[in-house]
Structures are given as C-alpha cells and as structure tokens.
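Workshop exercise sheet. Pairs work together: one partner reads the sequence aloud, the other fills in the structure field after running the prediction. Swap roles for the next sheet.
Pair: D.N. / O.F.
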Amino acid sequence: MAGLVARRIVLAVPVLLFVSLAVFLLAAASPFDPIHQYYGVQIFDASAADVARVRQQLGLDRPVPLRFLDWLGGVLSGDLGVSRSMRRPVADVLAERLPWTLLLAGCGLALAVVFSLFVGTLAAWRQGGWLDRLITALGHALEGIPPFVVALLAIASFSLGLGWLPVAGLTDAGSALGPAQVAEHLVLPAAVLGLSQSPWLVLHVRQSLLAAFTEDHVTGARARGLRERVVVLRHALPTALLPFVTLIGARVPELVTGAVLVEEVFSWPGVASAVVTAARAADYPLLTVLTLLATAAVLLGSLLADVAAVLLDPRVSADG
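Structure field:
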C-alpha cells in the first residue's frame, strides 16, 4: 500500500508540471490581454507610457517560459503569487473560497453515494418490475442533462415555485453568516450536484448487483434458505461495492466540473467565479493554481479509489 501511494505521488509531479506549463501557454495564446483586464475601462485614459510601465512591472513583457520559471520558483518557496484580476495574493483567494467549494463538493458526493446505493439496490432487487424500469429510464434520461439545467429546474421548482428553499448565496440579505443560514442555502446546490452525479452510479450499482446475484456464494446463500434481504445486503452488495468505489474515483473530474457549474448558477462563493475571472483576465498565477487544484483532486480521487479497492478486497494487487 505504501508503495502504491509513493508511486502515485512520484508520477503526479510530472503531470502537475505539464499541466501548469500548458496553462501558461494557453493563457499566452488567449485573445484576452491581461493588461486590459488589469486596467478595466481606465485603459482608455491611460497613456502608452503608463501601460508599458505597468506591463513591465507585472512582468508581462517577459517571454512566457521565463514567467513560468519565475512562478514555479515562487511556488516551490511557498509564494503562490498575486492575482492580477482580484488584486490579492492567490493564497488569500484560496483561503477564502476553497473551503466553500470543498463543503459543496463533499456534501454533493456524499448525497450521490448514499442515493445511488439505495436506489440502485432497490432497482436490482426488483429487477424487471415497474420500479426497476422507472429507475433505469430516469437514469438514462438524466445522463444527458447538464448540471446547470438541473440547477435551473430546481430553482424554478423549489425556490421560485414552492418557496421552500433560498435561490442563491450563503445567507439571506441582511442576515449574519451562521451555520443555520449556510445549511439552508446549501441544501439545494448540494442536492443538485449529487443528483447530477447519480445516474451513472445508480445504473452501475444496479448492473453490479445483477452480476453478483449470479455468483456462487449468493446462490449458496439462497440455497441455505436465508431471507432475501440478507442475501442482497450481506452477500451480494459487498461484492458490488468494489467496482462502485472504482467508478467513484473515475467520476471525480465530472464532480469538479459539476461543482463549478452549480456554484455559478447558485452564486455559491467558491472557486467557480474565480476560475471564470482568472480565465478572462489571463491571470496566470490564479488560473494555474486553480487548474492544479482540480488536477490534484482528480489524481487524489483515483488514488483513494485504488486504496479503497485494496482495503475492500485483499486479493486486488497494489503493484499496478
């Protein structure tokens, strides 16, 4: 297990370096001029000399490879740089926004896992029945619906229509930030994020359980006269958990993308708006760090899925 973790960490280093360099090169090829984004509308009142001076101060007159090496040296020394688009240190931007994104993504993933295990097990248990057909049809239908569409439908139904939940933000207008306010405003975006990630998980749990029902140990449990509930939950479901855990790790990129979209729709103060702002402003320091965080989340999700697979089934090799 330690060797698996060590190998993944070593392999992650060149991946992160390549991603960070790619972000710098893509930002340099962007049609957006960072100096225009830095000045805003005041660019029309600035003289050419002032623009050239600010461009030199920001290091935008230097070649992209040199800017990348300067940024990389600062990161290795603990300095993430200063965001030009937000006029703040990148570390401060992350400290303010990242916890809210982690809260939303964590709650959404937890809801998706619990919901998928329950509904997928129910569908497999009632294979061929009307409930199984309904769940399967809805699962396939939801696979093609983007998270932002689900978010807009949820707002129209539960916020504007029924008035049960707030539309957006962390708190109501004029209310102080507190656990109750955050929890109330978290319900709808977390539910939307979890639901948008559930179709693949539900269908996968159903299919894995149907395959487990044909295995010898499940057939033997039924032959011994055990109740169907015991057969499903104690014999078949544990067998289906191994591929389910692997799929969760593979779904991390979709979770990251879904979280960004959901944050934008619900005005959740996470990293989503920072990603959009940094991309439009070609803000190299902030954009690169945010992209590296997303890449690290994907790599970490894959690693945790493999570690969980080894722990759930000791027969799985940790050498690969």
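Discussion prompt: The beta strands are 82-83, 88-89. What would you look at next?
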